[in-house]
Automatic annotation (TrEMBL):
Pfam families: FAD_binding_2
One Gene Ontology term of the molecular function aspect: steroid dehydrogenase activity, acting on the CH-CH group of donors
Record-given protein name: Oxidoreductase
Swiss-Prot/TrEMBL keywords: Flavoprotein, Oxidoreductase
């Protein structure tokens, strides 16, 4: 009897499933090591870079030159205290998340900035102060500003890794396979050895647009290592609601999407079917400051307002949100509070003076000055008037009401509210009472105390926090109200991984041949953030996990 034919030698050293930032970083590391890589994705080549391309480009750096130039005193120890106070690790499943958190903090305080600088990445000199926290030193939040905006935003962060992968393609090391949808991981003798799926019909839609799912054929690729870089569930509202935890109240009946439709969670189920362990699926990160995009790219496309701390925040019934739930302070605390009201929207009330100083919009396309590195356009941020994208939303956005008088503003808010829901008399009472507190330097209103404190930081005083003033002062007008919606964004749980990004099985041992990176891995370990993020750590987690996977696979391939 003839001996069986030996298995064909794999064409690739690794297959990367997903061409977002984490997948590109893993592939770039493999190219640097001279390895052969297939990078496959169900979307077209126009979507290379995934969600990161659309991002503001914010990164969590610790004790950076940018911070020190602004007089910000940061340290690894302070960052660790902030991280642990925010994460609230409390499960057996958090063991690897804790390890990833410590490793990432070391990276953010050490090599991250220099590694990116060598690749040509630069940062805007004003460091932002995101997630200011819950009001106590050891609780959730950033004690100091740490949100470093990439000069060029998300596209500039993607660029060096895309360039490396495309250079690898030109050198014959990389096969880019867009419109290839993975439906199955090939498992033989307990090891993942490749992928199978469908070749999808070409689609000439623009970046981010929903694409067809018409299968025109099948494919199979084999390699000793497969990297799942397929993202989370934010574009699939059915999965978001199914994973919604009781601690956050009832799942919203309506939500906007802060990510394209292709962020569908398919890769997580496929990895689990092949032996990977999914953990912390009930941990998620969604925003409460979403507004409908008047020029949408994907279905239910929402944009997040990045607010300064001065706008007054009311729930759908007209009750002011309690401290410390001020704009920009506690994302999930605010989400939990609003979800428990039973309503899916809330309100900002502010002035023209506030919108000019404090409103920014998340995303590369909403910040053309930073994205295009346009110094002349950037100067608009310190001049009178809102930025052009903010002004466009104010004029064309369905969620914006602009009025010269308070009665006109309240009438507009009523028109956008369900009948009888909004107590406009209480909104007026709160505005009048808050304005009385502005008349002197002392106040029992903690929001006024917080914004005065924020102006002690030169970056906030220059670009992000308006001088305290009466909201009903006609000189500060017109008055503005913004209807805010819940906006889906990130999964904080995912495939559990070790520090080499190897996917772990139910017994805690690595699944041979399988790796996971980025959001699919909970940004490390199946949940590096625990319950809460400090912001700037989603892109950072993609960088760090992708790098770990690429380097680990490159080392294995030489054995």
């Amino acid at each position: 009897m003839a001996a069986p034919s030996p298995a064909p030698h794999p064409e690739f050293d690794a297959i990367v499933v997903g061409h977002g930032l984490s997948g590109l970083v893993a592939a770039a590391e493999l190219v640097d090591a001279g390895k052969r890589v297939a990078v496959i994705d169900q979307e077209s080549d126009a979507n290379l870079g995934g969600q990161a391309w659309w991002s503001f480009g914010g990164l969590f750096n610790v004790d950076s030159p940018e911070q020190r130039r602004l007089g910000v005193h940061d340290s690894l120890e302070l960052a660790r205290e902030d991280w642990l106070g925010s994460a609230g690790f409390d499960r057996d499943e958090d063991e690897w998340g804790r390890r990833w958190a410590e490793a990432y903090l070391q990276f953010a305080a050490g090599e991250q900035r220099a590694w990116l600088h060598e690749k040509g990445v630069r940062f805007f000199p004003i460091v932002g102060w995101a997630e200011r926290g819950g009001g106590m030193a050891i609780a959730h939040g950033n004690s100091v500003p740490r949100f470093h905006i990439t000069w060029g935003t998300g596209p500039a962060l993607v660029a060096p890794f895309e360039a490396k992968v495309r250079a690898g393609e030109a050198a014959g090391l990389v096969a880019l396979r867009p419109r290839h949808r993975v439906d199955e991981l090939i498992v033989e003798d307990g090891a993942v050895v490749g992928v199978r799926g469908a070749v999808l019909a070409p689609d000439d839609g623009s970046r981010g647009e929903a694409s067809n799912r018409d299968a025109t054929g099948e494919f199979e690729l084999r390699a000793p290592a497969v990297v799942v870089a397929s993202g989370g569930i934010g574009g699939n509202h059915e999965l978001v609601r199914a994973a919604w935890p009781e601690r956050l109240g009832a799942p919203p009946a309506t939500m906007l999407s802060g990510v394209p439709e292709y962020v569908d969670g398919r890769g997580l189920g496929i990895a689990e079917a092949s032996g990977a362990r999914l953990v912390n699926g009930d941990r998620m990160w969604h925003y409460t400051e979403g507004i409908e995009n008047f020029d949408p790219v994907w279905p239910m496309h929402g944009i997040r307002i990045l607010p300064g701390p001065s706008s007054m925040w009311f729930d759908a019934t007209g009750r002011r949100l309690p401290p410390p739930l001020f704009p920009g302070f506690d994302t999930l605390g605010t989400l939990e509070h609003l979800a428990r009201t039973g309503h899916d929207h809330s309100w900002f009330v502010l002035t023209q003076r506030i919108i000019e100083k404090e409103f920014a919009l998340s995303g590369s396309e909403q910040n053309p000055d930073l994205t295009n590195k346009d110094i002349m356009l950037l100067a608009q941020r310190v001049r009178a008037g809102a930025t052009a994208p903010v002004e466009a939303f104010k004029q064309q956005g369905a969620d914006f009401i602009v009025a010269d008088t308070l009665p006109e503003l309240l009438d507009g808010m009523r028109r956008l509210s369900p009948d009888g829901l909004l107590d406009t008399a209480n909104v007026e009472r709160e505005l009048v009472a808050r304005d009385r507190e502005v008349a002197h330097e002392y106040s029992k209103d903690l929001q006024l105390t917080a914004l005065r404190g924020a102006r002690n930081y030169v970056g906030d005083k220059l670009l992000r926090v308006a001088p305290p003033h009466r909201i009903l002062d006609p000189k500060a007008g017109p008055l503005i109200a913004v209807k805010l919606h819940i906006l889906t964004r990130k999964s904080l749980g995912g495939i559990q991984t070790d520090l080499s990004s190897r996917a772990l099985g139910a017994d805690g041992t690595p699944v041979p041949g399988l790796y996971a990176v980025g959001e699919a891995a909970g940004f490390g370990g199946g949940g590096v953030h625990g319950y809460r993020s400090l912001e700037g750590t989603f892109l950072g987690g993609c960088l760090f996990t992708g790098r770990a996977a690429g380097r680990a696979i490159a080392g294995l391939a030489t054995q």
